[in-house]
Write a structure and sequence with these properties.
alpha/beta; eight-stranded parallel barrel
Length: about 325
């Protein structure tokens, strides 16, 4: 139920608009690295100083007109240029829907191609993020087409899919980020139980560590991290074959600890005003994440449109659920 609530919140237009308007006053800076590129670069430099590399996400998705898609592309090109000129240790992550996938496949393909070409110019990696199941096949099609031209691209495998291993085997020679999955998917294509998802997640990680090109292990779960530590030691996996990844603002102490221990570490650094949907899906993916940032975002000083609306939305969902149970 809690996952459904956060997914619902991520799609609520009232809350999306309120988040854009009141973002910094809500404490958005705890979960995003700034609302503009200069702020993001400063955040990246701070992480770099601790031996942490970054993957940068210029937030935005589900664009529905060509002008917005091209604007998003230009913004991402600016990010690439800034990474090069500011000499920071970072690469980029992009979402196909932000670049026009819902408008026209070829529009999106050409936008991503231009981004990949610019990144290649500076020897930067481009990770093509995965979204919900309706975009799964076209996103893999993008990867297939662009990999003919570029070697600096990789993508994401979501562990909650029943056929995740099939995709992982197909793309074993790519740099792959393995995640659990953050969208609400039907049970005929995706695991619903946390234990099933965790089990498949570990299975995918172990297989790709042994057979893949490079594995980005994206999790905040210290139990899984400790499992991976033991696995790489037992199988003598070279440190240049994998990295741990976490989201900006989550489990900061653990991020620093892993970097200090010498493990390759990368922080997923989102920036921009369009942060709300991204954040709610992180909570849907792992509701325990709420505990990591709740004190910073939903504190006693927070009494805004977003806080009130979110509370009303959750209360409404819980009330409906209780009514159904009574029936």
């Amino acid at each position: 139920m809690l996952k459904d609530i956060f997914i619902g919140l991520s799609q609520n237009q009232l809350l999306i608009n309120a988040a854009k308007k009141y973002g910094l006053r809500l404490g958005a800076q705890t979960v995003v690295a700034g609302t503009n590129l200069d702020e993001a670069i400063r955040s990246i430099k701070e992480l770099n100083a601790h031996g942490i590399s970054c993957t940068v996400d210029n937030l935005g998705e589900f664009v529905f007109n060509e002008k917005e898609a091209r604007t998003a592309k230009e913004q991402i090109l600016e990010v690439i240029q800034a990474i090069h000129e500011r000499d920071v240790d970072a690469h980029i992550s992009i979402k196909p829907t932000q670049l026009g996938l819902n408008i026209d496949y070829n529009l999106c393909l050409n936008n991503v191609r231009e981004i990949a070409a610019k990144a290649k110019q500076y020897n930067l990696f481009v990770n093509i993020d995965m979204e919900d199941s309706s975009h799964l096949v076209p996103t893999f099609n993008l990867v297939d087409e662009l990999s003919v031209e570029f070697e600096n691209i990789g993508t994401v495998i979501q562990a909650y899919y029943h056929n995740a291993m099939e995709y992982l085997e197909k793309y074993q020679n790519y740099q792959i980020r393995i995640v659990k999955g953050a969208y609400k998917e039907p049970e005929d294509i995706a695991y619903q139980d946390k234990q099933d998802i965790d089990s498949n997640y570990i299975k995918l990680i172990e297989w790709h560590l042994l057979h893949g090109k490079f594995t980005s292990i994206a999790t905040h779960d210290h139990h899984i991290i400790n499992h991976v530590k033991r696995f790489v030691k037992k199988h003598r996996i070279p440190y240049d074959k994998f990295e741990f990844q976490m989201l900006y603002g989550f489990r900061k102490e653990l991020q620093l600890k892993l970097a200090e221990e010498g493990y390759p570490f990368c922080t997923y650094v989102p920036f921009g005003n369009d942060w709300y949907g991204y954040f709610m899906r992180r909570l849907a993916e792992r509701p325990q994440n709420l505990n990591l940032v709740a004190k910073q975002i939903f504190n006693k000083k927070t009494n805004t449109v977003l806080g009130v609306a979110a509370g009303a939305f959750i209360l409404g969902r819980m009330t409906k659920s209780n009514k159904k149970k009574r029936k």
